[in-house]
TrEMBL record:
Residues of the signal peptide: none
Keyword Disulfide bond: no
Entries under SUPFAM superfamilies matching the protein: C-terminal domain of transcriptional repressors, Iron-dependent repressor protein, dimerization domain
Species of provenance: Candidatus Kutchimonas denitrificans
Origin organism lineage: Bacteria, Pseudomonadati, Gemmatimonadota, Gemmatimonadia, Candidatus Palauibacterales
Pfam families: Fe_dep_repr_C (PF02742), FeoA (PF04023)
Name under which the protein is recorded: Ferrous iron transporter FeoA-like domain-containing protein
Subunit and partners: Homodimer.
Molecular function GO labels: DNA-binding transcription factor activity; protein dimerization activity; transition metal ion binding
Location, primary (coarse class): cytoplasm
Amino acid sequence: MTLDPWFLIVLVGALLLALLWPGRGLLDRWREGRRLAERARVEDALKHIHARELRGPLATAESLAGKLEVSVRAAVELISAMEERELVQSTGTGLTLSSEGRKLALRVVRAHRLLERYLADELRLPLEEIHARADRQEHRVTEEEVAELEARLGYPQTDPHGDPIPASGGALDELEGTALTDWPVGRPARVVHLEDEPAELMSQIVAAGVVPGMHIEVRRVSRDQLLLWDGEEERGLAPVAASNVFVAELPHPVRPPVKLSSLKPGESGRVLALRSEGFERRRLLDLGLTPGTEVECAYPGPLGEPMAYRVRGATVALRREQGDQIEIEPLDEAAGEDR
C-alpha cells in the first residue's frame, strides 16, 4: 500500500506544528514544565532553610534531601546551584540565606499563607487539606496575583494555622509559642499556632476542635492523652498531635468561650470557630463568618432580633441561636493581651 505523498506532507506538518507551535507546542510546554519544576525545587529549598533559621537547627544537605524527597547527592547539587546564584551560604553549622535568598523565601511564604487563607475562607476546604493544595499552587502565582488575592481577602494578618503573613515588603512578625506537650498543667494558655504537617496529625487536631486563638488549660496528662479544658468542655488530644499545637501565656484564667451573640452594639470580635454543621454551617460561611474574620455588632432589629453585624464591609442579620454557634475573641480583650 502506497501512501499519498500529500498526506505524508500534511501529517508531518501537523506533527511539527504540534511539537513546535510557539507557546503551545509540546516542546515549549515541556520546557515550561521543567522550568516550573526547577523553580519549585529552589523555592521549596529556600522555604526549608528559612524555617530552620527561625526554629533551628540550621538546615543541612541531609535535612534538605529529606524535605524534598531526593538523594543527598541531588540536594548537594541544588545547594551548589543556589550558592552560585548567591541565594544561600554554607557554614560550619548549616545553611543560611543571603538577603536575596531570604527575600525570595518570604515571597513564597507570603504566597503560600495567602493561598491557605483563600482555600479555607473562600473555597471552604477542610483545614487539614489546605497546606498540600497551597504547596502545589504557590510556585505558579505572580507577585501581582498575590497582591490581588491579599486585597480580595481583606488583608488578613494570619493564615488559618495562626502563622503571620509576610507583608508585601518582606516584613514578618516573629511567632513565639511553646509546644502544648511542654506546657505546665493548670496554666492558662492561648493557642497561637497549629503545625500543618503531617496532615494525619492536623486531622486529629481539627477533630478535637482546637483552633488558633482558643483559650485552653491542660488539666491532666497521661501516656496516651492530654486532657484540655476550654472553659466549657473537655477535649482529649494524643501527645503526638499535641506536640503540633503551640501556645502562649494567657493573662487570665480560662473562661467559657465568648459567643458572637454576647456582643453589644459597637463592640467587635474575631471569629475563632463555628460550632455548627451541615446547611447552617454553610450559610454562616457564605456570609463571610470564617475563622479569623473581624465582626462588629451594629444594631438590633425592631424587636431586638435579628441582630445586625458588619462583616467584610457588608451588613448581615443573625438570630441569637445563630450567634450562639459562633465563638469569638473580643477585640478589646485581644488588644489588652497584646499589651
